[in-house]
Design a protein that fits this description.
The longest helix has 29 residues, at about 305-335. The protein contains twelve helices and twelve strands. The protein is an alpha/beta fold.
Length: about 425
């Protein structure tokens, strides 16, 4: 349980939009159901999601979202605290630190109003890159997330905080998380690899979930939260993982506490329990391959010749965009010949990065060359590791930005 007089607070955020990213909002909706079943009241749960999936034209079951094959409707009763254009990294951070004045919203300004005896659980699901987690139209950078967490700790806004993050390269968001501020973070991937989607639905023609999220939520539904610790859950994650390497960061003492201390309130009456079936992950696909896999399936199953040709053109456009991004990034990289220090940052380079400098470089690349919030350029996120390694080698941010500008202008001129 929380400290004497304390409350359990929960922040759930899906950072994507559009049907092909179905799985991220499905993850968040499922996470909400788990919190609700564990007796945490809606007044202490904040949900952020674009909310364009349940009633999407492509949804064969309007009003329903599932998170596993033949699963139950996880969309029911989910609070719509922040949707559409209100789903931003600025609002996320403002809500987290309880700053109503900083929230920009068309609706009520619901925030995490936590105090020193309270616990906070944060779960985010979307695309990511080195030091970056995406929201629908702008990114959340590790520098801003870590700064906010540190300030909240200094202001004594929680007794314990646990963060679960579903995204590619998600480990890079926490390599500079201090181990002394009662914060424990678990990620879907290490700092230098992709995460994986799972459960491709041939009817909905999209993926329903992600590997990491499917496993931790399954464990929550099957274990005894009064006895199991977060480290027990991490052990289960390690046992069940198939591809990406789940990682933990921060304060191990928080990880050793029972899950109930953060995720279980004393319900007024026994909640409806959804019994977990045996976990069987299927259709595991690297996130950067998901758009191509979805298109390949749609092309193979489309019976209308005109629509099929349109899908083929879209597929070709995605391949061309990927090739152009790769050429551009390689041209930028070639302006900084590898030195003797190249091998030193070939592995986990994220601990040696100046996060603020990396943010300025990444933002310059996004706004100058390829905005990864545009569907065809989404894969640009996976190329951010080139800039992260340059920063780790000590190359000045201004030099990298100059190279980005020069190569970017040259590339645009050749279009």
């Amino acid at each position: 349980m929380a400290a004497a007089g304390g409350k359990h607070w929960v922040m759930l955020a899906a950072g994507s939009k559009k049907w092909d990213n179905y799985r991220h909002q499905a993850d968040v909706c499922h996470a909400y159901q788990i919190m609700h079943q564990n007796g945490i009241p809606d007044s202490q749960i904040v949900v952020m999601m674009y909310d364009d999936i349940a009633y999407n034209d492509k949804n064969p079951y309007p009003g329903k979202i599932i998170n596993k094959p033949n699963g139950w409707n996880v969309y029911q009763r989910v609070p719509k605290d922040y949707t559409g254009q209100d789903v931003t990294p600025e609002n996320f951070l403002a809500v987290l630190r309880g700053d109503k004045r900083a929230v920009r919203s068309n609706g009520p300004k619901k925030v995490i109003a936590s105090g020193r005896n309270d616990t906070i659980f944060i779960y985010l699901s979307d695309h990511g890159g080195p030091g970056v987690f995406c929201f629908p139209n702008s990114p959340l950078y590790a520098s801003d997330l870590i700064a906010t967490i540190k300030q909240m700790a200094a202001d004594r806004m929680f007794s314990k905080m646990v963060i679960y993050l579903e995204a590619c390269y998600s480990g890079s968001m926490f390599t500079q998380l201090p181990s002394y501020i009662n914060v424990y973070a678990v990620t879907a991937a290490n700092p230098i690899e992709s995460s994986y989607a799972c459960y491709f639905d041939p009817v909905r023609k999209t993926y329903l979930s992600n590997e990491f999220s499917a496993v931790w939520m399954h464990h929550n539904e099957k274990c005894d939260l009064n006895k199991a610790t977060f480290q027990d859950q991490f052990g289960y994650l390690q046992k069940k993982k198939c591809h990406s390497h789940f990682c933990w960061f921060g304060d191990m003492s928080v990880g050793q506490c029972p899950i109930r201390e953060v995720l279980k309130n004393a319900p007024q009456k026994p909640p409806q329990i959804i019994k977990a079936r045996k976990l069987r992950l299927t259709d595991l696909t690297p996130t950067h391959e998901v758009p191509f896999t979805i298109l390949k399936h749609r092309i193979a199953t489309e019976t209308d010749a005109g629509k099929r040709q349109s899908l083929i053109r879209k597929q070709e456009s995605l391949y061309q965009a990927r090739a152009k991004i790769e050429r551009t990034v390689q041209a930028i990289k070639q302006r900084f010949p590898a030195g003797a220090d190249e091998d030193e940052v070939d592995g986990d380079y994220s601990t040696s990065i100046d996060l603020q400098e990396f943010k300025t470089v990444a933002e310059h690349f996004r706004t100058t060359c390829f905005d990864w919030h545009v569907e065809e350029f989404e894969i640009a996120l996976s190329y951010m590791q080139v800039f992260a390694r340059l920063c780790a080698r000590g190359v000045e941010a201004e030099r990298i930005k100059e190279a980005i500008t020069t190569v970017g202008e040259s590339s645009n001129a050749l279009q």
